[in-house]
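Hi support team,

I've been running sequence recovery on a batch of backbones for a student project. Most finish fine, but this one hangs at about 90% for roughly twenty minutes before it completes. I'm not sure whether the input is malformed or the queue is just slow. I've pasted the structure tokens below so you can try to reproduce it. Let me know if you need the job ID as well.

Thanks,
M.K.
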């Protein structure tokens, strides 16, 4: 359920016609609906209201500080994977007792920043990292809350690039070795072992892989408790999928019910790290058709958004629905929707059955709220595009369009070249 809809054949975001925003900010831009963001967060969070839990929004999926602020105001914590994400979350006013820090390559300065910020816990992913966390905490005279991120070796049955809980993936600590690792961790004086965590992958469209992971984690929690470790938190990560095309995905309430039913016998505070399921369908990308052309083999629709703005189709061959901002009667063709970047892999859709768009028309690329702007780049020296938030009948530019000067910020010509 989202608040992008057609009224008199025109696409609106809540109570605002998309064309009004185009007139003010130009194209391309990302557009988010606050009502949808709030609704998705609430649906997820309320689904777990029967159990102690913290919903820690995954900042990597959409890290704009205004977007973070919406969730934080609704009681969210955050899942971070870098010092930069912590900085953003702090700017957005996060309660640091609801921050979990994941990732295989945390650096010393990032660990120290997180310790100084008094975050809830690190999801540590290797024994060397644990040692480093311990020594950083010692230096700062602190005790670091820690969970070990275990790799439960379950198949999330998703795209290989976004599956993370298999032995062949770099993430986590082999669950078979985790008991020894926990024993070592509890001996570290500046580490407070308080949880168990995992994240099996993203865009997971079935509940069963989550239940498999939960079963492994519960077993581990029991073993650790038998050894006297005070395991309070069970972090199941994120990963619940959304509908981009026709995927039949579990509703968050089904996902929650299955997890709650399977964990009656374990007394833990749950942590969830949802990203995509909250923001994915709350954002779209608006782009304008620059040119159309055909050859004997193909029709091309060339638009002003490229793989530097939305890389998912190029990177994962992922599908995003494409709709006209203004509907009218017209024939359908098979075409590639491509961007201006000098790469053959620069496309938003390939071999797509699509309306015959014309030069100057506006297109909405749907389901672009997650891993859209956050994965964008300046490739081909293109400024990153604005992010716009609609709320209560108004729209707000929550990130400005980059200008040429932004492109060379920080660059210098050394004296010998002058
Ligand atoms: N927690 C951890 C430790 C993660 O690594 C991730 C995502 C999440 C939570 C949030 O997962 P979500 O609920 O959004 O599925 N760029 C890819 C997705 C990469 C996901 C990486 N980790 C894409 O565009 O599909």
């Amino acid at each position: 359920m989202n608040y992008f809809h057609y009224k008199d054949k025109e696409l609106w975001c809540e109570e605002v016609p998309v064309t009004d925003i185009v007139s003010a900010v130009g194209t391309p831009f990302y557009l988010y609906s606050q009502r949808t963001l709030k609704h998705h967060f609430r649906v997820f969070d309320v689904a777990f209201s029967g159990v102690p839990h913290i919903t820690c929004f995954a900042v990597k999926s959409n890290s704009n500080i205004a977007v973070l602020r919406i969730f934080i105001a609704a009681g969210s914590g955050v899942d971070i994977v870098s010092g930069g994400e912590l900085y953003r979350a702090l700017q957005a006013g996060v309660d640091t007792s609801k921050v979990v820090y994941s990732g295989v390559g945390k650096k010393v300065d990032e660990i120290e920043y997180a310790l100084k910020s008094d975050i809830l816990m690190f999801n540590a992913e290797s024994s060397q990292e644990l040692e480093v966390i311990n020594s950083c905490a010692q230096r700062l005279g602190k005790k670091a809350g820690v969970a070990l991120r275990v790799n439960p070796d379950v198949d999330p049955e998703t795209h290989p690039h976004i599956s993370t809980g298999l032995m062949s993936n770099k993430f986590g600590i082999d669950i078979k070795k985790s008991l020894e690792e926990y024993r070592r961790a509890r001996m570290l004086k500046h580490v407070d072992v308080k949880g168990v965590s995992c994240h099996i992958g993203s865009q997971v469209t079935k509940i069963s892989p989550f239940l498999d992971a939960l079963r492994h984690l519960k077993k581990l929690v029991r073993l650790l408790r038998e050894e006297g470790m005070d395991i309070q938190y069970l972090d199941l990560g994120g990963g619940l999928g959304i509908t981009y095309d026709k995927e039949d995905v579990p509703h968050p309430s089904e996902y929650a019910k299955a997890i709650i039913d399977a964990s009656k016998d374990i007394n833990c505070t749950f942590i969830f790290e949802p990203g995509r399921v909250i923001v994915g369908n709350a954002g779209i990308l608006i782009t304008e058709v620059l040119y159309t052309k055909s050859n004997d083999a193909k029709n091309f629709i060339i638009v002003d958004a490229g793989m530097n703005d939305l890389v998912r189709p190029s990177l994962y061959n992922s599908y995003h629905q494409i709709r006209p901002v203004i509907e009218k009667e017209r024939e359908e063709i098979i075409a590639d929707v491509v961007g201006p970047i000098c790469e053959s892999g620069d496309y938003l859709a390939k071999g797509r059955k699509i309306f015959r768009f014309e030069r100057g028309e506006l297109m909405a690329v749907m389901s672009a709220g997650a891993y859209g702007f956050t994965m964008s780049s300046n490739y081909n020296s293109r400024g990153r595009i604005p992010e716009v938030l609609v709320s209560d009948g108004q729209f707000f530019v929550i990130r400005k369009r980059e200008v040429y000067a932004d492109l060379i910020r920080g660059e210098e010509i050394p004296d010998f070249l002058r």
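--
Follow-up from support: It reproduced on our side and the slowdown came from queue contention, not your input. The mean pLDDT is 96. No action needed from you.
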